[in-house]
Write a structure and sequence with these properties.
alpha/beta; binds cytidine-5'-diphosphate; Rossmann fold; 16% strand; 8 strands; 52% helix; single chain; three-stranded antiparallel beta sheet
Length: 217
């Protein structure tokens, strides 16, 4: 059997989607598209410009006029490397706000589809298998308990030197999930045909092995 052309990985915050996608890209020679990074870059650009994040028209203007590039695991906004700047707790909240808007999502979805043209891609996000690539050959839905996801995120943020408490991270994770699941357009959902993997108590290596068997049986 041929390995899949497109692999989608969806799931809530802190489930380990980006790490898994990065490892799949490395091991199996896929291009990794981190769709959340694009929303984060737009949210960040809006903040720099002082845009009101409840004003869809304003956010759309920003989204339509900027250049976001994904190069390996680095993210560039109008040519500037913003990889670290967008991966903050605030960056997640800003992303989630701009991601509520249908037309903003359309800009992002078109960009991602274009980036994927003619390539073998692994893409992670919230709507990768349900909306961006509904015909993907392999769809994964990665999840874990909110406490475990918050613990992972807390550890990651601490290692990066952020001064946050576990309780704050848990609250942020739960609130963002709520908002991502309940928005009217392209909400976080288990895509049809997806393989659901609960990573609670599993190491990344175990998860990678499980997914590896689906990619290269
Ligand atoms: O790494 P984490 O799961 O915390 O966040 P992310 O993947 O960088 O996504 C940040 C936010 O962008 C999410 O909370 C969603 O609101 C939004 N997003 C989305 O709406 N659709 C996607 N395909 C990817 C992210």
């Amino acid at each position: 059997m041929n390995s899949p052309e497109i692999v989608t990985i969806d799931g809530p915050a802190g489930a380990g989607k980006s790490t898994l996608a990065r490892e799949i890209a490395k091991r199996f020679g896929y291009l990794h598209l981190d769709s959340g990074a694009v929303y984060r870059a737009i949210g960040y650009a809006c903040k720099l410009k002082g845009v009101n994040l409840d004003d869809e028209g304003e956010v759309l203007k920003v989204a339509g006029n900027l250049k976001v590039e994904l190069k390996g695991s680095r993210v560039f906004l109008n040519g500037r490397d913003v990889t670290e700047a967008i991966r903050t707790p605030e960056g997640g909240i800003l992303a989630s706000k701009v991601a509520r808007f249908r037309e903003v999502r359309e800009v992002v979805v078109n960009l991602l589809r274009k980036m994927a043209e003619g390539k073998k891609v692994v893409i992670d996000g919230r709507d990768a298998g349900s909306y961006i690539f509904p015909k993907a050959d392999l769809k994964i839905y990665l999840t874990a308990s909110p406490e475990e996801r918050a613990r992972r995120r807390f550890k990651e943020l601490k290692e990066k030197g952020f001064n946050v408490s576990y309780e704050e991270v848990l609250k942020e994770v739960i609130e963002r999930d709520e908002s991502d699941r309940n928005r009217p357009f392209a909400p976080l959902t288990v895509p049809e045909g997806a393989v659901v993997i609960d990573t609670t108590g599993k190491s990344m290596e175990e998860v990678l092995e499980e997914v590896g068997k689906l990619i290269d049986p």
